[in-house]
User: What shape does this take?
Amino acid sequence: MADPDKLRDYRAKRDFSRTGEPAAGGAAGDGPIFVIQEHSASHHHFDFRLEVEGVLVSFALPKGPSLDPSERRLAVRTEDHPLAYADFEGTIPEGAYGAGTVIVWDRGPYENVSEKDGQALTMPEALAKGHVRVRLFGRKLTGVFSLVHARLGGEDRNWLILKEQGEGADARRRPATTQPESVASGRTLAEVAAGAAGKGARRRRK
Ligand code: MN
Assistant: This one.
């Protein structure tokens, strides 16, 4: 069970009588998962979330993930989300916090491969030290990504995300634009926004 205080900011920002987002909940599985949600809010972005000790530690990626190891992209730390959020796909109504449509762009297990001087770090330790390394086992993204607490512009919430060399690295693939379908429903943002079942729609696994 997650420490309920971790979700205080999440709850404070939302009116659950208006939004269909989950207020809490979600069960841990056999191992930690990651999810990347595409979100057409006032500024289109992707939300990268990692299951850590009962919540989803979250970063907003204004430009989405890159598979090019030479590219460093901004990752803005945002409030922890409940585990149940990993299944959320839908439209947050006009006027509500984060108004716009959300799809589950990629999802899967991840492995924490964070270390310091050859010593393995837990995820909370790696987050505190400001260097997190995770191997993703997604449908679109695989291989090791690094998150570095670079504090760009003096902002404590500003991290950088980069793809490490090796498995999954590819300077030409642009999945953020060429693979727009939800891995949960097969629908694009536009199809979810229109309330339509996309041509590739599949039943959700649970
Ligand atoms: Mn978002």
Q: What stands out?
A: Residues 39, 41, 45, 47, 60, 98 surround manganese (II) ion (CB under 6 Å). Confidence is low (pLDDT under 50) at residues 198-206. Residues 87 and 95 are 22 Å apart (CA to CA).
